[in-house]
Records
---
Amino acid sequence: MSDRNVRVVLLLTILLAVGVASLGVGAVRLSPVEIVAALSGRSPAAAQHETIVWELRLPRVILAGLVGLALGAAGAAYQGLFRNPLADPYVIGASTGSALGATLVIVTAGQAGGLGFGAVPLGGFLGAVGAAGLVYASTAWWGPAPIVSLLLAGSAVSSCLGAMVWLLMVLHDQELARIVSWLMGSLQGRGWPALIGGGPYIVVGFLGLCALARPLDALSLGEQPARALGLPLKPISGLIVAAASLATAAAVAVAGVIGFVGLIAPHLARALVGARHRYLIPASGLTGAILLVLADDLARTIAAPIELPVGVLTAILGGPFFLVVLRRSVR
Amino acid sequence: MSEPRLRAEGLACGYGRGLPDVLTDVDLTVESGEVLALLGPNGSGKTTLLRTLARLLPPRAGSVRVDGEDAWRRGRAWTHRRVAIALQDDPQGSRLTVDEVVRLGRAAHRGWWLPMTHDDGAVVDRVLERTRLAAMRDRPVDRLSAGEWQRVVLAQALAQEPRVLLLDEPTAHLDWNFQSEILELVDHLARDQGLAVVVSLHDLNQASTWADRIALLAEGRLLAIGEPDAVLTADILGRAYRCPVLVDRHPLTGTPMVLPTPRTRRPNEPVRMP
């Protein structure tokens, strides 16, 4: 097994360990022994532990892991496609596009009962593809995308789409609280339905990105060099945008807008496994998963008994990281 | 008579709709084992012609044939297994290693989805050895010097195992010794492996030294094509570059040597040696 495969497996092991440990974090603290007992259904303490672990924490931890996986892998793919270390689903507006698409579905479908799965991710997917496509097209139109043009295009598309979300919120003020809490990004109270509804889309998007590793390698050298190697540029770029947007949209549909995980995870992963996307995509996904599970633990406990929206937390922690990367990239 | 390895017939090239042709009526052939140098002033269409020959830019008119078959009719995959182009682009800040970049050349044969095989690895090893990159194969390409990157680009094209090799100014931005090194390698590839090479160059004397034939682009067309002796004349060059030149002979090789002649003569100053 190559050195980098070992490192990917190492990340997976860390994720599992962090995930299991997170089952004990919260208002009721559980020791590792109690967690294992509750999971195996032979809890000596009480049936209460089983309910906490099975009904509340397990779906939430898995969901945090999947959302982090989606954002991390999509971030790595966007960074490769745009040849830009600052691209991530949030920065290029895919998250906001997805939020707009999903909000549109929520308000038009009315009270579709909790999270009406099927339509919400679909709306989010179309929104994400639209936003990412728009940014991609405008940077392509400006020629080889320098960092500044990507940021400008991303922020223009983001604020425009974000304003439309606000508009929808004003027009549908009976849904205001729900939309706001969702926009802030949270994993609270999503449970198994969200996992079953959104999980498959994330898995499909993630596997799609893993399959697109070699085209992403070629694209990291530039569009013309990639074409010179025989890459069918437009269809393949379209596939990359579609797969990354699918993962992003599913993540946004279940957890709202969570920023910066998609930016940070690929940078950490690149330091660990290098730039080749065959390793970078899985490693970024796993790193994103670890980060978000940890962030969610923090969100649950830092201001207990109040729960912070995890999206607010990642934005506060991620902003400075963004500035550091920006400084290093612009030089 | 068998078909030449590469043939352009009545080729017109250009970019974008509504814009004029960059080049028209280009006819040329390149045989296996031959090096054709592409010369011409800035903006004469050297890169445009190379991109059209490489099937990256659709011809406005005419055809590009590889072993007698129309590249545009045979398709992308077919062409890229036979024709490789090394472009001038910089590594774009990519953090891939030398080995990973060169390996991508195998996609022409292996496709974009299947895993690389042992044979692909063997080809990559051979190519890295040949371009003297084996020692730095694990270095990220954004930490290479211009000369090293130029060799990586060439190695990637060679990993495609092409029959036709197109090189866009492979000696640009290189020191003298690296320029010769690249051109010596190109010479070997043509002689030993029978590649048909088209290489665009700025330096007329380099073309004179290394090319079997020279194609001179100017005024939106192929102004002259032939052996260095036939193309590198004061008359033709003066017309292409719009400046007077003096053509002499290299004292050792006997090939034409081109010297610029100043339009306004300065008085000779004696050269002082310390």
Note: Chain B has eleven helices and twelve strands.
---
Amino acid sequence: MSGDGQVGIVLVSHSREVAAAVAELARGLAGGGTTAPVAAAGGTPDGGLGTSSELITRAAESVDAGAGVAVLVDLGSAVLTVKSLLAEGDELPEGTRLVDAPFLEGAVAAVVTASAGGDLDAVTAAASEAYGYRKE
Amino acid sequence: MLDADFFRRWLSSCAVLVDREAEWLTELDSAIGDADHGSNLQRGFAAVTAVLEKESPNAPGAVLMLAGRQLISSVGGASGPLYGTLLRRTGKALGDVAEVTPAQLAEALRMGVAAVAQLGGAKAGDKTMLDALEPAVAALGDTTDSFAAARDAAEQGALATVPMQAHKGRASYLGERSIGHQDPGATSSALIVAALAEAVA
């Protein structure tokens, strides 16, 4: 990755409210104040449940500072839409990566790591490791 | 030979058939999915029709690439990226020639279907689109006469999903309760193959 900026984080959910709330939670748990850029891409443009490639593309562009963009997704069409946009080649900023991680826990780990200055590999690893966090 | 007009006819037939069967697709999807398959595809193929009227690509590959891209951006459900990938990969395989043979289309569609399988991670028998698409492309041969055989194979494939248990997508959460319902994705896939047969008629 090139550029001195922080890694950008995009949160894609079927629901506008879920994406926005998880973004807010991750920012808050990252210590508030200045965090790495986070953008929510939830639901369809009219506010319904679903996935919008337009909202995803716009969100990715808005957080791209040249250090790469980590995209976290909830399920189903969110996963497939991001995969197919990446397969297009030119739809998402260079250095955009789909991160295999649990949505909420991964988002928190990604935002904390990116805010601490971690590069795209570090952000991806931190988010994916969230799968290993057991609750009992 | 099949030119860009043939592919425009195919896609407009898709829009007509999806429109006509939208209620049924949504009904099937309300049994094992989230009850939006008909309306999602209606929106998607209406957008495809509109973009093809606005821009008129003059090569088969370009028509399919444009249509696929439009489906990815307008459907809003998993069927958007899946059908979008089917059309885009098929279009890419056809290249930028002005006309293609039925045999070339058959080969390109096989690549498109393989790309769908890869994207969704599904295989035959998982109660998905592939259960209609795979038999359809297997039935395609060197002539346009084989399009009718592909249509019949896709319809049989869709019907054969009834006793299957879903292993992919929202329906898989239902486990054994997904048995006894026809898969909406396989059903819409059969419509898309039927539209191919209509485009030569």
Note: The domain at 2-200 of chain B is CATH 1.25.40.340 (Serine Threonine Protein Phosphatase 5, Tetratricopeptide repeat).
